[in-house]
Give the backbone structure.
Amino acid sequence: MAVTTAQLVDWLERYAGVIAEQKQYLTGLDAAIGDGDHGINMDRGFQTVLVKIEPVKNKDAGTLLKTTGMALVGSVGGAGGPLYGTFFLRAGAALDGKSDVSREDLVSALEAGLKGVVERGKANLKDKTMVDALTPAIARAKARVQEGASIGEALSSAAEAAETGMKGTIPLKALKGRASYLGDRSIGHQDPGATSSYYMLRTLSEALAEVPQGAKTATS
Ligand code: ADP
Ligand code: MG
């Protein structure tokens, strides 16, 4: 079953809600190994996203996600905001003009988003960044879709992989971003960007687990 723009709106709203709830926690993680602004940055960005997507909620998925990316790029400074902005801009470009997004389309869009993050930030796996949560998660989603899983099942597995990747940042020494200035002192702390990326996958999985509107009447 195709993913609708309404489900993607639901995702963005859920994600903005979790970011607002976890703002202090994310900022605390960043205070330990960075400059203590990740929660503030992400919350500012996603509050802007909620306003900016209002006029495009009924448009295609590409427009929705590109609008999200532009809102983030325009409202958040630092490293995290522009990287998330790039993620959504690239994912949106991959879904240009599509209103019914297939499982394969969604996985390709997530892959395009991650590719943008890696091109822009140049992080490798195990550098202790958001890439450590996103890479295994999106690979898992792709593998599950190829096995024939529903998009809800695939994203649920992806969220689990993101959580494992996020926890896996704890013993790592940071090699990119502000945390890298700490060298060995970054070891033992969970990366804030990997944490917000886990929330991103988890809320996507939650939004896709719901039966889309219309499907109920078609089967009942
Ligand atoms: P800043 O570091 O500029 O204060 P944030 O605090 O909002 O920005 O975001 C920090 C997060 O950004 C880190 O926890 C890390 O996951 C991510 N990050 C930083 N640099 C990079 C990079 N080069 N590539 C990928 N992710 C990065
Ligand atoms: Mg910071």
In short: The chain has ten helices and two strands. Strands lie at 3-4, 100-101.
